[in-house]
Design goal:
This protein is an all-beta fold. The strands form ten sheets. Strands 22, 24, 25, 27, 30, 31, 32, 33, 34 and 35 form a ten-stranded mixed sheet that branches. The protein starts with a strand and ends with a strand.
């Protein structure tokens, strides 16, 4: 078949037979008349050029592998007349970004939408009672999932490897029966919203109990159907209004920056750094380790983050900006309850550092914490809170604006032991090639917990005796 072929199937045709257009890679669009009631097995299998198909209301069944591997198909609307979606019906449609399943469908077949890696949203109606094995396996771009209260069974690995999921809503009062590896390779710390009176049942149910963040669906929390709420955050607008926000409606902006400025952030939604390369040239996260010189200068150590990493919500970080106006948008779906607290600050381990030999000893007298805030912190005690200025230096402040990072000094240590705070961007400040602990034969570990050979250490941070740090 020639490329860019468009086909209008003749009116009066009752069905599209098995293998009818199998492998017709040149087929780009097809119009199916209202006389057709069924689409046969493998009918459009491997029609990789097919971008558009109109399924009329006369069709009642979509056969096994009917659109299997139609990788060019970007969207499909299944009419209310369809009652069954066969096995592998849309499997491998990697270009498919959204799908709406009508309320006439009662079951979703084996791997019906498996490997639809581009699928970002799916609407499952209240008519569906069972979701087949591998039904949405490998739909890695699916960010949120709503399972209606009609569903009673979810097949094995139905949502396995949907690694992009950051929110699940299950409206069923009785936890649906889930079979082996139903949610395999999904982050088990993501929020899972369930009916309030069913929380304990979900915490005890097989597969569901693996999730650590099971929360109640509030009657006034529009998380299931309302996708119109917008969350537009700035340094002056930090209102995290209760609700569920689709990523297309979520943004955070900060203006009046200079190219090359350093800025701190603490964002209430996940950020994919691969989508911010035009905004940030470098991103660093604190290692919660500080080196205190005898002069009172405290060097706070940072670790540069790979530009393909995900910065989780609530993680404080430092970024070198490439634009005067920072805009973070279309990052992740997010939801807020009645009250969203500020992230809990982390304790920082302090080591005395002579600045010359590189020798380190832990200092337990100085108490430092590092954290971030979603709301404005006002009227703070002098010399307790410090934050980063645009030139990369630190200074004491009495107010911290929303969505920024700060360092908190416990007690009265700033005046007596700490004279200044500086961020150490990969030894740009220290210039020291080697930091080491007292000599002993204890094993050395990297920050991932792997034991390493002390004689062949590369540049980085290492743990010795559970407290000791080696840096080269």
């Amino acid at each position: 078949m020639p490329s860019n072929t468009k086909i209008d199937i003749k009116d009066g045709t009752k069905g599209i037979g098995d293998l009818a257009f199998r492998g017709c890679s040149g087929l780009t669009s097809v119009t199916i008349p209202n006389s057709v009631t069924s689409i046969g097995k493998w009918a459009f299998y491997n029609c990789s050029g097919l971008t558009s198909v109109t399924i009329p209301n006369s069709v009642t069944s979509i056969g096994e592998s009917a659109f299997h591997n139609c990788s060019g198909l970007t969207s499909v609307t299944i009419p209310n007349s369809v009652t069954s979606i066969g096995m592998w019906a849309f499997c491998g449609c990697s270009g498919l970004t959204s799908v709406t399943i009508p309320n006439s469908v009662t079951s979703i077949g084996y791997s019906a939408f498996g490997y639809c890696s581009g699928l970002t949203s799916v609407t499952i109606p209240n008519s569906v009672t069972s979701i087949g094995e591998f039904a949405f396996y490998g739909c890695s771009s699916l960010a949120s999932l709503t399972i209606p209260n009609s569903v009673t069974n979810i097949g094995g690995e139905a949502f396995a490897e949907c690694r992009g999921l950051d929110l699940i809503i299950c409206e069923a009062s009785t936890p649906p029966s889930c079979y082996d590896k139903c949610f395999y390779d999904i982050n088990k710390s993501i929020p899972v919203y369930v009916p309030t009176n069913s929380i304990n049942a979900y915490k005890e149910a097989i597969q569901w109990k693996d999730f650590s963040n099971i929360l109640p669906i509030s009657n006034d929390l529009p998380i299931s159907n309302d996708q119109t709420l917008a969350l537009t955050l700035t340094d002056k607008n930090s209102d995290l209004t209760k609700g569920y926000y689709k990523k297309e409606k979520v943004s955070l902006s900060r203006n009046n920056m200079l190219v090359g400025d350093y800025a701190t952030f603490c964002i209430p939604f996940d950020i994919d750094l691969s989508k911010t390369t035009d905004v940030f040239s470098k991103v660093y996260v604190p290692l919660n380790i500080g080196l205190l010189k005898s002069s009172g200068e405290l060097l706070m150590l940072l670790d540069e983050v790979n530009n393909n990493a995900i910065i989780k919500s609530g993680q404080a970080f430092v970024a070198k900006c490439q634009k005067s106006n920072v805009l973070l948008e279309n990052c992740a779906d997010v939801s807020f309850d009645e009250s969203t607290p500020n992230p809990t600050p982390s304790n920082v381990k302090i080591y005395n550092f002579d600045g010359v030999s590189g020798a380190l000893t832990q200092n337990t007298d100085v108490k430092i914490r590092i954290g971030g805030t979603y709301s404005q912190l006002k009227n703070l005690e002098s010399n307790r809170y410090c934050t980063l200025f645009t030139n990369g230096s630190f200074g004491s402040v009495t107010n911290v604006t929303p969505f920024q990072m700060y360092v908190y000094i416990d007690g009265g240590t700033l005046g007596s032991k700490i004279t200044s705070i500086t961020f150490d961007f990969h030894d740009e400040v220290t210039g020291i090639k080697e930091l080491r602990m007292t000599n002993d034969n204890s094993p050395v570990y990297d920050l991932n917990g792997r034991m390493v050979n002390e004689k062949n250490l590369k540049s980085g941070l290492y743990i010795k005796n559970g407290k000791k740090v080696v840096i080269k």
